């Protein structure tokens, strides 16, 4: 009877030794704890790494990341921290420097842009060029004003000259300033009659027909 009770007790102890680690592993907080040697150990804070894992009655020992290394979350990195990113590629510069709790952020210099969201490389920004044949140069405002004033003055001068020419033409006709046209050849014979000479009466009457009188 006693031996059967002892066997039952041993069975319970053996079963609990196998079940207990499983229960402990499911009870660890994934955010701040990690499982090590069937024990939930505390993770190290951002900016630190695990120097020594926890034991039965001792907590996890953490150390601060060195220069050029970082951790940005609770972690169980043992004796190491991730390297900081370097922004040393062509046309690249630092947008944010690396710290022990955050990685560096890269960007591109002026005139260049990142090829992806992580800015792994930079490319030149292509600017649209307008052909020179269709480009027009707009003169400054003061040049436009002077051009307009010059055109107005020219129009006024032309109008004044035309008015003066018309007035001179009218006065010349009224007062006889314009020379009369040369007399026609047909009237050359009649002009002979105006000469102050003593001409017989028949000749005066037949002025312009002297050729016929000579024949008679």
UniProtKB/TrEMBL annotation:
Residues 182-201 are annotated as: Disordered. GO terms for biological process: apoptotic process; immune response; negative regulation of apoptotic process; signal transduction. One of its GO terms (molecular function) is transmembrane signaling receptor activity. PROSITE patterns: TNFR_NGFR_1, TNFR_NGFR_2. Residues 184-193 have a biased composition (Polar residues). Keywords: Membrane, Receptor, Signal, Transmembrane, Transmembrane helix. The chain crosses the membrane at residues 144-168. It comes from the Eukaryota. Residues 64-106 form the TNFR-Cys domain. SUPFAM superfamilies: TNF receptor-like. Residues 1-25 form the signal peptide. TNFR-Cys repeats lie at residues 64-106. One of its GO terms (cellular component) is external side of plasma membrane. PANTHER family: CD27 (PTHR47496), CD27 ANTIGEN (PTHR47496:SF1). This is Tumor necrosis factor receptor superfamily member 5 isoform X3.
């Amino acid at each position: 009877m006693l031996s059967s009770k002892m066997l039952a007790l041993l069975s319970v102890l053996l079963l609990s030794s196998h079940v207990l680690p499983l229960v402990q592993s499911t009870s660890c907080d994934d955010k701040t704890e990690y499982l090590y040697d069937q024990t939930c150990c505390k993770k190290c804070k951002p900016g630190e790494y695990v120097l020594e894992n926890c034991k039965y009655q001792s907590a996890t020992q953490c150390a601060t990341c060195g220069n050029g290394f970082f951790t940005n979350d609770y972690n169980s990195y043992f004796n190491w921290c991730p390297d900081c990113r370097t922004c040393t590629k062509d046309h690249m510069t630092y947008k944010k420097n690396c710290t022990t709790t955050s990685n560096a952020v890269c960007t591109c210099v002026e005139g260049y842009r990142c090829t992806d969201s992580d800015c792994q490389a930079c490319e030149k920004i292509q600017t649209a060029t307008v052909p020179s044949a269709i480009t027009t140069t707009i003169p400054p405002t003061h040049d436009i004003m002077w051009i307009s004033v010059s055109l107005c003055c020219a129009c006024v001068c032309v109008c004044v000259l035309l008015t003066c020419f018309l007035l001179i033409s009218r006065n010349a006709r009224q007062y006889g300033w314009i020379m009369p046209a040369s007399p026609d050849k047909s009237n050359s014979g009649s002009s002979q009659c105006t000469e102050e000479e003593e001409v017989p009466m028949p000749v005066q009457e037949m002025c312009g027909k002297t050729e016929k009188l000579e024949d008679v």
